[in-house]
Amino acid sequence: MDAKTQKYDRQLRLWGSGGQQALESAHILLINASAVGCEILKNLVLPGIGQFTVVDQGTVTQSDIGSNFFLDADSLGKSRAERAAELLGELNEDVSGHWVAKDILSLLTENPSFLSQFSMVIASDITRQTAEKVSSLCWTNLNAIPFVWVKTVGLLGTARVILPEHVIVETHPDNVADIRIDSPFPELSNYAKSFDFNTQDTLEFGHIPYVAILLKYMDEWKQEHDGKIPGTYAEKNQLKANIRSGMRSGDDENFDEAINSVLRSCQPTVVPNAIKAIFSDPKCETLTAESSSFWILARAVRDFVNDHGKSGGLLPLSGTIPDMKAQTDSYVTLQSIYKTKAKKDVQEVSNLVYIILESLGLAPGSIASEEIETFCKYSAFLKVIRYRSLEEEYTLPKTKQIASWLSEEDSAFAQYVLLRASDSFFDDHGRYPGEGNDWEEDVDHLHANVATLLQSWGIDTEVISKDQTHEICRFGKGAIHNIASFMGGVASQEVIKLITHQYIPMDNTFIFDGARSVTAVFAV
Amino acid sequence: MVDAQTITDNERWAGIYKLLDRNSLIHPEFEPQEEIKEFIQSCKILVIGAGGLGCEILKNLALSGFCDIHVIDMDTIDVSNLNRQFLFRRADVGKPKAVTAAAFINKRVQGVTVTPHYCKIQDKDEDFYSEFALVICGLDSIEARRWMNATLVGMRDEDNPDSLKPLIDGGTEGFKGQARVILPGITSCYECSMDMLSKPTGFPLCTIANTPRLPEHCIEWAHILEWPNKHGERKMDTDDPKDIQWLYETALARAKQYNIQGVTYSLTQGVVKNIIPAIAATNAIIAASCCNEALKIATTCAKNLNNYMMYSGNDSVYTYTFEHQRKDDCPVCSTSATKLDFKGDKTLEELMDYLKEKPDVQLKKPSFAVGGKPLYMQAPKQLEEAMRPNLQKSLSELFSSGDELTITDSTLPFSLQVIVTFV
Questions:
Q1: Residues of B in contact with A92 (CB under 8 A)
Q2: Residue B83 and residue A8: Cβ atoms within 8 Å?
Q3: Which residues form the E2 binding domain (chain B) (predicted)?
Q4: DSSP percent split of chain A into helix, strand, coil, nearest 5
Q5: Sheet of B134-137, strands arranged across
Q6: Does the ipTM surpass 0.90?
Q7: CB atoms within 10 A of CB A456
């Protein structure tokens, strides 16, 4: 094993070489080397992102070194960007770090397309005004750039993910087994029928795979019930009883496995609604030469599903089956029957992919065969997330939803409201609530900002108490390392999901209340 | 080089001091006092483990203002640690984790002293543990956690407030983790929640020997059956790449024989070393959560977690915070005996095997006594040999239904009191 594989072994087991390659091709921008910003970068440099750039015009102060591990006593008075980049760079010799000691808005004025070189933008400790500007540039970039905006205020932390669309094939569901007891394909039925249920050999009987057992009893049931599978709870119990009656000894594990799988197997294999929604999405309906491989593949699978002769109206077979009590050769044969059918489905889908590519004027090799194979394997678990922009969040509030969130007891959404109000306070006063020594004087002002916001949503201003407002002023926009580190973990993990296109990122605002030790996610 | 004295605490800890200097209407019971700041600076705090969680915990505690931190870890640094144990560099591979971690923190953060202990937690006694105000665990083994938990619970004396050592425990695996606060004798303890643990995956021996189907079966065959066959007394070293290579090739050959796909070097390593995937992000979240609780407990600036937070990050970001209840018959933190129904005609050995497997008991090498009279002792050797025949005797031959058994195990600093009723 080479040195890099050894080093990254523990993470490769989560996202494989494909995910690692995506990370190593990434160039991440961090705006502001605050405590939380550096904690986020730490968790990205360690797993080996390709490059990072830190943009920060500040010089290191004492309160910086009290909350930020990547600034030390030697850094006092020096460029925050430079020192943070240096100390973060030390974490991983395979990562290239850069820094610019400038304010982001000046940089963008000098060079409006500064952001285009980055695959991800992360910002902390920026004003709402700056966030709106950066967010808009990221959103409208030729290839939209995901933007993650993070804040910590005393014991509170929040992270917002902003990008137009994120697609995921490798969602890593708990169970990819696709057994099709309710709708067996011909090769499967035939193989199941080849087992001798009358055999006197107890070893042989005890090793009949549960799939064959289920298929036999399901087949008998269908014959007695007009071709239908058990629907009601009573019917499913009856099927279980039927199988139980076929047991010879109380210890027949294979029969137990069959009985335990009845409920799952009686759920008809269908195209999930979420996948149907993807199929009817305009981006699946209308393809162009600029369409991403995700949408081209979705269309190919849709066409496959619609061709009942080839697909039986179902998604491509995943080809995965669970382990089960069986002799080696029967299991291996059964497994290869599923794998062969899965391969056949992939071949059909591939042909459809080539037809589509040709119609778009694209080369047949534009989409690699591994990509087609993976797409087919996970076709039941695909996910498309469409995020709301900051502009939509601010100008088109989901007032009904917000009222519902706030009506819950001890709602964490109250913190969202308080943090939004704090941004308004900043617009009014040029500083955050509680920053100065006369912190309690800010309570009334901040509470007025809270009331304005709630009123704009048509919500009773009583839902947020003055005590809660008082607590935000108590925090005084203080940077506390533990909170920065917690948010650093959460935000970096979402960034990794976005870059690797594996696992499912949150949609779209995460709140951590370190006082009550609770978290919540809101799609604002 | 800046003179350490020109760094003032008021500026450095500005964020935290806002919490400590200002009153709260949400937590009206909190009283700002200078003594709290002095306490953080002077108290001794113990970190167990200097690995994935430990490195994060040390950093977090140092940047919370704690000045006297101790860390115990018996391991040395491995290349596969470098993707998340950020206090270590490639040049440190082979060195003790505790020592290297302590040196890094001491250099990076002014005014903190981290004292390393390169040893097992079992090498330290109650006198050692009683010096600390708080213990934070970043361990990777159930056995070590049980030992630490039982030791701290055992130390607690209701009449002596100083003997109460809050134990904050964190654990991670891939994108999942949990953080909990244990107040010995007050809240549920680690032993109370043993039944929450999932059964460790093991494959039946007959599958491994006769009907392999998965690549894992082939690997376990090479590991458990073929290795002793070919290497006799010599134990396998799972850290030696040569031994893993042998296992991989042997497993692959068997797989080829049975037409089984999927044996890789990586899977081989994963199975025999029981490798758990790990990344920096999850460790950061759980460690930060633990240290956030530590700061709240040490300062009372807000209410601490009561008492368990579970975290999952593979699908969105999700936490579940709840109060885990104490178990009435917890062998560690309660005084009442556990009740067990068992067939009187089963042998003592069968009872022993049952207790080894049971998730909330999980004993390794139990010894049994009833009413002060030993039934079977694992040590010393002569006693074990003399008592071995008892293993084959039925329970009803050895004691009466309703008797209370005292069960001990060398890995655990407590005894299990079990009232056995014959059914």
A1: 82
A2: yes
A3: 340-423
A4: 55, 10, 35
A5: B113-117, B68-72, B44-48, B134-137, B167-173, B176-182, B308-312, B318-322
A6: yes
A7: 10
